[in-house]
Amino acid sequence: MTLSAPPLSVSTLTPRLLLGPGPSPVSDRVLRALARPTLGHLDPQFLALLDDVSRRLREVFGTANEMTFAVSGTGSAGMQAALANVLERGDTAIIGIHGYFGVRMADMARRLGAEVVEVHGKWGGVLESEQLVEAHRANPHAKVLSVVHAETSTGAQQPLDEVGAHLSGTDTLFLVDAVTSLGGVPVRVDDRNIDVCYSATQKCLGAPPGLAPITFSARAVDRVRARATPVSSWYLDITLLWKYLGVEHVYHHTASSNLFYALHEALTEIEEEGLSARHDRHLEVGSLLQRELASRGFGSFTDPASRLPQLTAARLPEGREEGPLRAALLEVHGIEVGGGLGPAKGVVWRIGLMGHGARKESVERLLEAVDALGVGEP
Ligand SMILES: *Cc1c(COP(=O)(O)O)cnc(C)c1O
């Protein structure tokens, strides 16, 4: 006779402290919002909620852009929506690459049939603004120039001001991945002349994964409307999406009311805390972690001048094997951190202090576990 395993139930899953590169911990308040009864995707109450989500997202993005909403899908759906709407087959796209997510953008742009001009920077560093401006001068006909603001694979924050100022006087759109930056460090879409900017709910915004906030400037919208060919993705065509989510509220797809409840509640938390207080909190807690890790013999994978507070790529002390220690951190202490990608594979932990997880208690719990496992140098 064989004993059968008890049926799997989500009620028996062990909660973890999520201190990896996302998803980040979700507050009880946001989880309670998520659990409210499902509404129809055309219910007038839900449509009012969609409008309020757009209004709150404009605040967080720092934009007056009318076309601001949340795409159904994760951050990569935001990336795909951004690129697929502004690029047509044969267009040139200049893409900055200083980590894994820049590589993904270039891959997507190529699949859309674009001629990609890659501008490379060292993983762990940033792209010099002059490098990007030079690439644009050499390719002034480029339809778009894209960069990742917060490179989650390396922990580096890309400067945006100079490139945005340069591009604003040209016909090239400035496209920015703010998946890990939004809600953690200032993004300021309008001040920086960003034309297309997308994010995700599960990093510094404090909601579960499943929606991708996105915003398009008026000139980006004009560009999309003037396309010679339809957007290759029906699902992510922003003119169709905006008809549903923004203006006429005509059926396009069945948006998840529950995910929108969670995002709305998370945005309400942000409004109550204040965006700049939230940025300060991320900075304070991230700096604390970075100091404490340094005192335990951890190194920084990221150039010191470019470190993000909300994502720390820490090299383990000499002789420590990251994989087994990361597994023990999860199994014994219930804490999730991320491993490295690309050149950082096997040598770093990527530690996220994002959204609801960006608090001193997270740092304390992590350091206790690090000390208990003997990861740091004595
Ligand atoms: C997480 C992340 C993405 C992808 O988001 P998913 O939600 O995993 O699809 C894109 N860009 C950056 C910078 C990210 O950190």
Describe the structure in brief.
This protein is of the alpha/beta class and 378 residues long. The chain has helices spanning 28-34, 44-61, 75-86, 100-111, 129-138, 161-168, 218-225, 238-245, 257-273, 275-295, 322-333, 360-372; strands at 17-18, 68-72, 92-97, 115-120, 144-148, 150-151, 156-157, 173-177, 196-198, 211-216, 299-300, 311-315, 335-336, 338-339, 348-352.
How are the secondary structure elements laid out?
Blueprint: E1 17-18, H1 28-34, H2 44-61, E2 68-72, H3 75-86, E3 92-97, H4 100-111, E4 115-120, H5 129-138, E5 144-148, E6 150-151, E7 156-157, H6 161-168, E8 173-177, E9 196-198, E10 211-216, H7 218-225, H8 238-245, H9 257-273, H10 275-295, E11 299-300, E12 311-315, H11 322-333, E13 335-336, E14 338-339, E15 348-352, H12 360-372
Helix pairs in contact: 1-9, 2-9, 5-6
Considering the chains and any ligands shown, give keywords for the structure.
378 residues; 12 helices; 15% strand; 2 domains; binds pyridoxal-5'-phosphate; Aspartate Aminotransferase, domain 1; alpha/beta; single chain; 4-stranded antiparallel β-sheet
What does this structure look like?
The chain has 378 residues and is of the alpha/beta class. The chain folds into 2 domains: 12-24 and 274-373, Aspartate Aminotransferase, domain 1; 28-271, Aspartate Aminotransferase, domain 2, CATH 3.40.640.10. Helices cover 39% and strands 15% of the residues. It has 12 helices and 15 strands. It has helices at 28-34, 44-61, 75-86, 100-111, 129-138, 161-168, 218-225, 238-245, 257-273, 275-295, 322-333, 360-372, and strands at residues 17-18, 68-72, 92-97, 115-120, 144-148, 150-151, 156-157, 173-177, 196-198, 211-216, 299-300, 311-315, 335-336, 338-339, 348-352. The longest helix has 21 residues, at 275-295. 50% of the residues are buried. Bound molecules: pyridoxal-5'-phosphate.
